[in-house]
Amino acid sequence: MVGIAGGADKCRYAVDTLGFDACLDRRRPDPAKRLAHACPDGIDVYFENVGGEVFDAVLPLLNIGARVPVCGFISHYSDEAAAGPDRLPKVTATVLQKRVRMQGFIILDHYASRYDAFQRDMTAWVAAGKLVVRVAEA
Protein backbone atom coordinates (compact mmCIF):
# COMPACT_ATOMS: atom_id res chain seq x y z
CA MET A 1 0.00 0.00 0.00
CA VAL A 2 1.45 3.33 -1.10
CA GLY A 3 0.43 6.64 0.43
CA ILE A 4 0.86 10.18 -0.77
CA ALA A 5 1.22 12.98 1.76
CA GLY A 6 2.44 16.55 2.03
CA GLY A 7 5.78 16.48 3.79
CA ALA A 8 8.41 14.11 5.08
CA ASP A 9 6.94 13.95 8.60
CA LYS A 10 3.54 12.86 7.31
CA CYS A 11 5.16 10.27 5.06
CA ARG A 12 7.19 8.84 7.97
CA TYR A 13 4.00 8.65 10.03
CA ALA A 14 2.19 6.82 7.21
CA VAL A 15 4.96 4.22 6.98
CA ASP A 16 6.14 3.91 10.59
CA THR A 17 2.80 4.20 12.38
CA LEU A 18 0.07 3.38 9.89
CA GLY A 19 1.92 0.53 8.17
CA PHE A 20 2.09 1.79 4.59
CA ASP A 21 4.73 0.08 2.46
CA ALA A 22 5.83 3.46 1.11
CA CYS A 23 4.71 7.08 1.11
CA LEU A 24 5.53 9.74 -1.46
CA ASP A 25 5.88 13.38 -0.54
CA ARG A 26 3.64 15.19 -3.01
CA ARG A 27 5.77 18.32 -2.64
CA ARG A 28 8.87 16.71 -4.14
CA PRO A 29 9.55 16.99 -7.88
CA ASP A 30 8.26 14.56 -10.49
CA PRO A 31 5.45 12.80 -8.59
CA ALA A 32 4.36 10.81 -11.66
CA LYS A 33 7.78 9.19 -12.07
CA ARG A 34 8.12 8.45 -8.35
CA LEU A 35 4.60 6.98 -8.18
CA ALA A 36 5.23 4.76 -11.21
CA HIS A 37 8.38 3.49 -9.50
CA ALA A 38 6.51 2.82 -6.24
CA CYS A 39 3.64 1.03 -8.05
CA PRO A 40 5.32 -1.10 -10.74
CA ASP A 41 2.22 -3.30 -11.04
CA GLY A 42 -0.15 -0.36 -11.37
CA ILE A 43 -2.95 0.75 -9.05
CA ASP A 44 -6.10 -1.21 -8.25
CA VAL A 45 -7.67 1.18 -5.72
CA TYR A 46 -7.05 4.90 -5.42
CA PHE A 47 -8.83 6.92 -2.72
CA GLU A 48 -9.29 10.33 -4.37
CA ASN A 49 -9.46 13.35 -2.14
CA VAL A 50 -6.83 15.64 -3.67
CA GLY A 51 -7.11 15.93 -7.47
CA GLY A 52 -4.64 18.04 -9.44
CA GLU A 53 -1.09 16.83 -9.94
CA VAL A 54 -1.61 13.80 -7.69
CA PHE A 55 -4.57 12.57 -9.73
CA ASP A 56 -2.64 13.28 -12.94
CA ALA A 57 0.12 10.96 -11.66
CA VAL A 58 -2.35 8.23 -10.66
CA LEU A 59 -4.52 8.20 -13.77
CA PRO A 60 -2.15 6.43 -16.21
CA LEU A 61 -1.26 3.84 -13.55
CA LEU A 62 -4.82 2.65 -12.93
CA ASN A 63 -5.23 -1.02 -13.77
CA ILE A 64 -8.13 -2.50 -15.71
CA GLY A 65 -11.06 -2.68 -13.32
CA ALA A 66 -9.54 -0.22 -10.85
CA ARG A 67 -11.80 1.42 -8.30
CA VAL A 68 -11.66 5.09 -7.37
CA PRO A 69 -13.83 6.22 -4.46
CA VAL A 70 -13.98 10.01 -4.66
CA CYS A 71 -14.52 11.95 -1.46
CA GLY A 72 -12.90 15.23 -2.41
CA PHE A 73 -10.58 17.16 -4.69
CA ILE A 74 -9.09 19.72 -2.38
CA SER A 75 -6.55 21.02 -4.89
CA HIS A 76 -9.46 22.48 -6.87
CA TYR A 77 -11.80 23.78 -4.18
CA SER A 78 -10.97 27.42 -4.91
CA ASP A 79 -10.54 27.12 -8.71
CA GLU A 80 -12.43 29.35 -11.08
CA ALA A 81 -14.52 27.46 -13.64
CA ALA A 82 -11.91 27.79 -16.40
CA ALA A 83 -8.78 27.39 -14.25
CA GLY A 84 -6.29 24.59 -14.86
CA PRO A 85 -6.02 22.03 -17.64
CA ASP A 86 -9.11 20.27 -18.99
CA ARG A 87 -8.73 16.77 -17.51
CA LEU A 88 -12.12 15.50 -18.64
CA PRO A 89 -11.03 13.87 -21.94
CA LYS A 90 -8.17 11.99 -20.27
CA VAL A 91 -10.30 10.94 -17.29
CA THR A 92 -13.17 9.81 -19.51
CA ALA A 93 -10.86 7.84 -21.83
CA THR A 94 -9.18 6.13 -18.87
CA VAL A 95 -12.50 5.26 -17.22
CA LEU A 96 -13.72 3.74 -20.48
CA GLN A 97 -10.58 1.95 -21.67
CA LYS A 98 -9.64 0.53 -18.28
CA ARG A 99 -13.22 -0.05 -17.08
CA VAL A 100 -12.50 2.04 -14.00
CA ARG A 101 -15.27 2.42 -11.46
CA MET A 102 -15.36 5.90 -9.96
CA GLN A 103 -17.97 6.73 -7.40
CA GLY A 104 -18.34 9.85 -5.36
CA PHE A 105 -19.53 9.77 -1.80
CA ILE A 106 -20.47 12.36 0.76
CA ILE A 107 -20.04 11.03 4.27
CA LEU A 108 -23.05 13.00 5.49
CA ASP A 109 -25.26 10.88 3.21
CA HIS A 110 -24.58 7.96 5.56
CA TYR A 111 -23.63 9.69 8.79
CA ALA A 112 -26.80 10.96 10.44
CA SER A 113 -28.78 7.72 10.70
CA ARG A 114 -25.77 5.63 11.73
CA TYR A 115 -24.04 7.98 14.16
CA ASP A 116 -24.87 5.93 17.27
CA ALA A 117 -23.43 2.75 15.71
CA PHE A 118 -20.39 4.68 14.48
CA GLN A 119 -19.72 6.16 17.92
CA ARG A 120 -20.15 2.76 19.63
CA ASP A 121 -17.90 0.89 17.17
CA MET A 122 -15.20 3.57 16.96
CA THR A 123 -15.00 3.94 20.72
CA ALA A 124 -14.50 0.18 21.08
CA TRP A 125 -11.97 -0.03 18.24
CA VAL A 126 -9.89 2.86 19.59
CA ALA A 127 -9.96 1.38 23.11
CA ALA A 128 -8.86 -2.01 21.73
CA GLY A 129 -6.02 -0.46 19.71
CA LYS A 130 -7.57 -1.49 16.38
CA LEU A 131 -7.42 2.11 15.15
CA VAL A 132 -4.61 4.60 15.39
CA VAL A 133 -5.79 8.04 16.44
CA ARG A 134 -3.68 11.10 15.81
CA VAL A 135 -4.88 14.45 17.03
CA ALA A 136 -3.27 17.47 15.40
CA GLU A 137 -1.69 19.87 17.83
CA ALA A 138 -2.87 23.47 17.64
From TrEMBL:
**Start and end of every Alcohol dehydrogenase-like C-terminal domain?**
2-112
InterPro entries named among the record's database cross-references: ADH-like_C, MDR_fam, NAD(P)-bd_dom_sf
KW Secreted (keyword) present: no
Q: Source organism's superkingdom?
A: Bacteria
Q: Name one Pfam family in it.
A: ADH_zinc_N
**Which top EC class is given?**
oxidoreductase
Keywords in alphabetical order: Oxidoreductase
Q: Does the keyword Cell division apply?
A: no
Under the GO molecular function aspect, what terms does this record hold?
A: oxidoreductase activity
According to the UniProt entry, what is the EC number of this protein? 1.3.1.-
Q: Which Gene3D superfamilies does this chain map to?
A: NAD(P)-binding Rossmann-like Domain
Name of the featured protein:
NADPH-dependent curcumin reductase
The organism encoding this protein is Ralstonia psammae
